[in-house]
Amino acid sequence: MGKIILTGDRPTGKLHLGHYVGSLRRRVELQNSGEFEKIFIMIADAQALTDNADNPEKIRQNIIEVALDYLSAGLDPEKVTIFIQSQVPELCELAFYYMNLVSVQRLQRNPTVKQEIQLRGFSEGDEDENQNKKGTPVGFFTYPISQASDITAFKATTVPVGVDQAPMIEQTREIVHKFNSVYGETLVTPEMLLPENAVCMRLPGTDGKAKMSKSLGNCIYLSDTTKEIKKKVNSMFTDPEHLQITDPGHVEGNVVFTYLDAFSTDEHFAKYLPEYENLDAMKEHYRRGGLGDGTCKKFLFNIMEEMLQPIRERRAEYEKNIPEVYEILKKGSEEARRVAGQTLAEVRKAMKIDYFDDAELIAEHTKKYQK
Question: Looking at the 3D structure of the chain, how many domains does it have?
Answer without folding.
Answer: 2
